[in-house]
Design a protein that fits this description.
This protein has about 110 residues and is mainly alpha-helical. The protein is about 60% helix and about 0% strand.
């Protein structure tokens, strides 16, 4: 049985972006204590951050598990989301975030 077109597209996209995933410490002005606490929770890359904090409930749970303030979790989530754009490096993601752009769909 052949995979669906959507499944094949997802597979190709994953292959394309997996090598371009960034570490959470690649963002300009990152908080080392927050990055270390996230690493202890097994979250070191942007894709892991997005998965772990995708919903408000997940963000609250992550905050309780790690002791990280919710606004810091949201900051790292938004930076992670911005970094999904092709060519978006840690410095540019921080600049967009500081300018008030927190999610890809606003660009």
């Amino acid at each position: 049985m052949q995979p669906s077109l959507a499944a094949r597209a997802a597979e190709l996209r994953e292959k394309e972006v997996s090598s371009d995933r960034k570490g959470l410490d690649s963002f300009l002005g990152h908080d080392r204590q927050v990055i270390d606490k996230l690493a202890q929770a097994g979250i070191i890359r942007t894709d892991q951050m997005i998965e772990a904090a995708f919903t408000p409930e997940l963000r609250e749970s992550l905050s309780q598990r790690t002791g990280i303030e919710i606004h810091k979790i949201i900051e790292n989530l938004k930076l992670s989301d911005l970094s999904r754009l092709k060519g978006m490096k840690g410095v540019r993601a921080r600049l967009y975030y500081e300018a008030g752009v927190g999610v890809c769909c606003r660009i």
